[in-house]
Model the fold of this input.
Amino acid sequence: MQQPPSAGRRAAAARALAAPVLAVVVTACSAPEPPDPDPAQAPAPGAAAQVTAELLTRVTSVHEETGMTLLEGPVLAPDGGLLVVDVTAPEGEPKVLRVDTGSGEVETVFTEGDGAYTSAQFSPSDGRLYLTDFAGGRIDSLTADGEDHTTFFSGEVDGAVMRPDDLAFDEDGNLYVSDSTGFDGPVWEARGRVVRIDGETAEATVLARDLPAPNGISFTEDFTGLWVSQYAANRVDHLALDGDGTAVETAHTALHFNGGTSRVDSNAIDAAGNLYQAVHGRPGILVYSPLGEHLATVEVPADDAEGLDSATNVAIAPGETDAYMTVSGRDGGFVYTFEALAEGIRQSNGG
Done:
């Protein structure tokens, strides 16, 4: 996510797949052999594919009260609609919105309270939508149609209130949260954490601490580990979990992001285990294989990029390759689409 102005951070992005087409010259009288490809235009061996996303719809405009709009947390609801959150929406304005993925029509789902929601995901145990409130240090939940708003978790964890940014569920409905405390400080003052919250008791346990503002968090395709993007360090870590997911057995830096002034944001996984890493400060997403090979870069059309700052997050429809990314900037908040490299799974949908 990008932190809201009151908390202090970032914004959104976009994408869709493109394939190169070879032109063949055809004369009126005969079809000669096609010319050899121009070596200067052929992709280098192992080079990442360049993908241009397609605009689905504009969801929000910049709010006068907050001076910005920031879409986050794309997640496909049971009815097929795409739910997104507007992190910087002021009180009384839509905080959760629904986008019809066919028509692009937008409708309000939830407006209550003062939460600055930065991610959204449906629980596999109770089917409710869970939202991380970055500013309030809470995790709220509601039904898919925006009813029965309750707070599932609030308060301190080991003596410190969280800055809950992104969220991932294990198969049993337990919550794994990136605590982005320290996001506005230097990398050497690392105070972030990864926190596990029991899905039944709401008991919180710190799995990792002293991290440089963790942001994106996604389970691997087999639920044996976590991919955690470190916002303040421009890297992605892999955390291998024990058998019941209550402790980190080993951890290492898996990817380094050479982003310059841009930084790693939220992420998602597809059925092949590929990692889709969103970028704050650039409206794009980078796709990596489980072994760290850079497979693709997804960006918005060049004509759109000037008014967009960041790609915050991405969701891939489970069982399909339809992907949706949230992108924001001074032109507003948008959803772009592209074709994922593999089908979506639970770990692809929300967070």
About this structure: The mean pLDDT is 89. Residues 13 and 311 are 2 Å apart (CA to CA).
